[in-house]
Amino acid sequence: MKSEEFVNTVSVFQDKIFRLSLRLLKSRDAAQDSTQDILMKLWKMRKKFDKYKNIEAYAMTMTKNHCYDQLKLKNNNNISLVHSNFALQHSGLETALEAKEEMSIVARIIEKLPEQERAVIQLRDIEQYNNKEIEDILEMNPTSVRVAISRGRKKIKEELMKIKNYGL
Amino acid sequence: MDFSKKYISKLLEKYDNGNSTLEEEQHLKTYFTEHDIASEFEVYRPLFAYFEQAKNLSYHSKWQPQRKVKMKPLWMKVAASFIVILGSVWLFNLYQEQQELKAAKMAFEETQQALKMISENMNQGLEKLEYVEVFSEQKNKLIK
């Protein structure tokens, strides 16, 4: 596999790797490093690509494992991850500021979820994988995927309700 | 497409319970981004707006697989090592030859010196022999 071919293959899902890393690690730098590492690993195993039925799902699983490892490492070192900075691009006209605020509120609510719920929300609601794919990527059974999705969504909704009813 | 309150509220319930299909979620996204939203659903609006926006984030740093350093062909490596080996053998031989030559020269000089010494001593002996010659001449005169 030539490097151009490789770049074409991974360009389909490298943003997804980055976004999942960012969702789990909550830091842009850490997510950049993580993506870099995953792409490096993929590059090293490029000759075996055709052995995998779904290289994208495999890459996403690698990302999940890599990020969970990183989180464990950070926890062991008692380093708390510092909040992220989700890029807030082109959000609108005069209501831009308000919209921006809303976006960062949702981002912060998701940030507070447990890592598994963060992962399923990312994969389902943002990347729009179906449940079967999420089961494969996260190596979870169907019930726990569904439960995690539901829990995550309900928690986000409750937080948004609180903010709506009582303000920040 | 059906965007009645009844339908949306049914979808949202399914959504909360994790039972909605991707298609139904797409309907919800369309509803929340393109329609006037009923006030009871207002709470979901930032959520779907955020999901829509979050998927546009991309990995910017351009990643390139490092190029492999082009290796010289094998025969070149073999040739290079041969040259090194031959060269060192030749140098060693040259050195040894020179060492031998030096040793031979030194031996020659020493021998020469030794011979010179002998010849000097011999010459000294010859001087004394002259007396013997004179003596024998005188003796012959007398005894004849």
What's the total number of strands of chain B? 0
Rough outline of chain B: rod-shaped
What can be said about the biggest beta sheet of chain B? Answer: none
Alpha-beta classification of chain A:
mainly alpha
What percent of residues of chain B adopt helix (DSSP H or I)? over 70%
CATH topology of the largest domain in chain A: Rna Polymerase Sigma Factor, Chain: A
CATH class of the largest domain in chain A: Mainly Alpha
Largest sheet of chain A: none
Radius of gyration of chain A: 17 Å
Bin the strand percentage of chain A.
under 5%
Give the largest interface. A-B, 42 and 27 residues
Number of strands of chain A: 0
Q: What structural class is derived from the secondary structure elements of chain B?
A: mainly alpha
What can you see in these coordinates?
- The complex is a heterodimer of chains A (168) and B (144).
- Chain A is an all-alpha fold and 168 residues long.
- Chain A has two domains: 1-83, Rna Polymerase Sigma Factor, Chain: A (Orthogonal Bundle); 91-168, Arc Repressor Mutant, subunit A (Orthogonal Bundle).
- Chain A is built from eight helices and no strands.
- With 144 residues, chain B is an all-alpha fold.
- Among the domains of chain B are: 5-54, no CATH class; 97-144.
- Chain B is 73% helix and 0% strand.
- Chain B contains four helices and no strands.
- In chain B, α1 crosses α2 and α2 (22-34) packs across α3 (45-54).
- Chain B is rod-shaped, with a radius of gyration of 58 Å.
- The mean pLDDT of chain B is 87.
- Chain A binds chain B through residues 3, 6-7, 14-15, 17-19, 22, 32, 35-36, 39, 43, 86-89, 91, 99, 102-103, 105-107, 125-128, 130, 146-150, 153-154, 156-157, 160-161, 164, and chain B through 15-19, 22, 25, 42-44, 46-47, 49-51, 53-59, 61, 63-65, 67.
